[in-house]
Every structure is written in structure tokens, then in C-alpha cells.
Design brief:
The complex is a heterodimer of chains A (114) and B (115). Chain A has 114 residues and is mainly beta. Chain A has no helices and 12 strands. In chain A, the strands form 3 sheets. In chain A, strands 2, 5, 6, 10, 11 and 12 form a 6-stranded mixed β-sheet that branches. A 4-stranded antiparallel β-sheet of chain A has the order 3-9-8-7, with no helix packed on it. The radius of gyration of chain A is 14 Å and the shape is globular. Chain A starts with a strand and ends with a strand. Chain B has no helices and 11 strands. In chain B, the strands form 2 sheets. In chain B, strands 2, 4, 5, 6, 9, 10 and 11 form a 7-stranded mixed β-sheet that branches. A 4-stranded antiparallel β-sheet of chain B has the order 1-3-8-7, with no helix packed on it. Chain B is globular and about 40 Å long. The mean pLDDT of chain B is 93. The chains are: A mainly beta (114), B mainly beta (115). Chains A and B meet through strand 5, strand 10 and strand 11 of A and strand 5 and strand 9 of B.
Chain lengths: 114, 115
């Protein structure tokens, strides 16, 4: 069965430091990959997505993610974190074979310290 | 403005008192879905609808009902709410039932507390 794993439940990072959030998925078929962010008390906002082509994708708010097929991973990165990046981040994956149902990881909460 | 609108945004109710969370989208999307979000579990799909009069169970459908009588509306019904249904609920939609990527457009969420 398809699954999405975010190994890190909580990450604390200093403002200005780099951030990397991990995401792994199971299942062999080519997935469609997404990262969403949920700020406190807010809904879900799409940060970026990968469908095909260049495996390094750029998103909003200075985020980028890299698709590595060999590792079944889609890790999210930001070179320099701002206090406003404190939020919960969700990796999500869909597969054509599953009618494009969007499956989510458990989420990673990011705390930014001054 | 293109959007998915949920109501109510916040609700506190008691066990057994029927409630409905409404969801409406103005983007003419065929596909709509309900998710619940719980700490440590991410978002789990409750029900989805490929089009009008076509609904199906997701991963956690127990205790919920849905209907899709119009393309724009997809209400979530809790006939007899229980405390384990205390959660944050999201409605979402996307343009096509198939030939798509799965990208969803989300509502703002409805926080439900069942006492």
C-alpha cells in the first residue's frame, strides 16, 4: 500500500540557519509530490509540487525541494529560515494508479528560535 | 475569488447531537473530499466524491456521512458525534476526477470539539 513518511516529528532551528525536512514514500510507480504548510490557526497552503522534469523544484517563500527517485524521497529545504517559517509542514503524494488520491505524511512541526 | 468555503469554522457540541459541516467551492471542480487532521497522524481522508451523486469511502469513514447533490456543495454529516471525532476537518476540491495530478485546493478548516 502507498504510504508517506516524514521521519522528523519536530525540528527546532535558529533564525537564519538552513532547514531540511525529510519525506519518503513507498510504492514503485511514479508519484506526484507536494509540500504543504500550515501556519498556526491557518489552513493548508501549497508550497511547491513536482510532477515531472527537473528534479529540483522551486516554491513560494524561498523553499525548494528535490525529488530523488532512487531514494524515494522528496526533501524540502530552505537556505535561511525566518521566524515566520514556524509552522507545520506536510508532505503529500498521489499516484495515478490510485485515482490521484492525495496521501499525507504525519507532518513535521518547525520551531524557529531567535 | 476562487475558494473552498467551510462552515462553521469552530464548533463545540455534545455527544449524540447531529451536526453538519458545510463545504462549498466556486471553481466548478468535479472532485471533492473531506479530511480530518489529528496530531501525529497527518491528514486522513474521510470521504470523497468524483462528481455529483458519486461518493465513496476514504480511509476513516466510520461515523460520517456525506452527500453530493450539487457540484459545488459537499456537506459532512455527523449523525451521532462522539468525542473521538474531535478534530480539525478540511474540505478540498480539484478540477477533474481523473487525468489529474491530485493537487487539492483546501478550505480554511473546521475545528470541531465533541464533549
Amino acid at each position: 500500500a502507498q504510504s508517506v513518511t516524514q521521519p522528523d516529528i519536530h525540528i527546532t532551528v535558529s533564525e537564519g540557519a538552513s532547514l531540511e525536512l525529510r519525506c519518503n514514500y513507498s510504492y514503485g510507480a511514479t508519484p506526484y509530490l507536494f509540500w504543504y504548510v500550515q501556519s498556526p490557526g491557518q489552513g493548508l497552503q501549497l508550497l511547491l509540487k513536482y510532477f515531472s522534469g527537473d528534479t529540483l523544484v522551486q516554491g513560494i517563500k524561498g523553499f525548494e525541494a528535490e525529488f530523488k527517485r532512487s531514494q524515494s524521497s522528496f526533501n524540502l529545504r530552505k537556505p535561511s529560515v525566518h521566524w515566520s517559517d514556524a509552522a507545520e509542514y506536510f508532505c503529500a503524494v498521489s499516484w495515478r494508479s490510485n485515482d490521484y488520491k492525495l496521501s499525507f505524511g504525519a507532518g513535521t512541526t518547525v520551531t524557529v528560535r531567535a | 475569488e476562487a475558494q473552498v468555503t467551510q462552515n462553521p469554522r469552530y464548533l463545540i457540541t455534545v455527544t449524540g447531537k447531529k451536526l453538519t459541516v458545510t463545504c462549498s467551492q466556486n471553481m466548478n471542480h468535479e472532485y471533492m473530499s473531506w479530511y480530518r487532521q489529528d496530531p501525529g497522524l497527518g491528514l486522513r481522508q474521510i470521504y470523497y466524491s468524483m462528481n455529483v451523486e458519486a461518493t465513496d469511502k476514504g480511509d476513516v469513514p466510520e461515523g460520517y456521512k456525506v452527500s453530493r447533490k450539487e457540484k459545488r456543495n459537499f456537506p459532512l454529516i455527523l449523525e451521532s458525534p462522539s468525542p473521538n471525532q474531535t478534530s480539525l476537518y478540511f474540505c478540498a476540491s480539484r478540477p477533474h476526477a481523473g487525468g489529474n495530478t491530485g493537487e487539492l485546493f483546501f478550505g480554511e478548516g473546521s475545528r470541531l470539539t465533541v464533549l
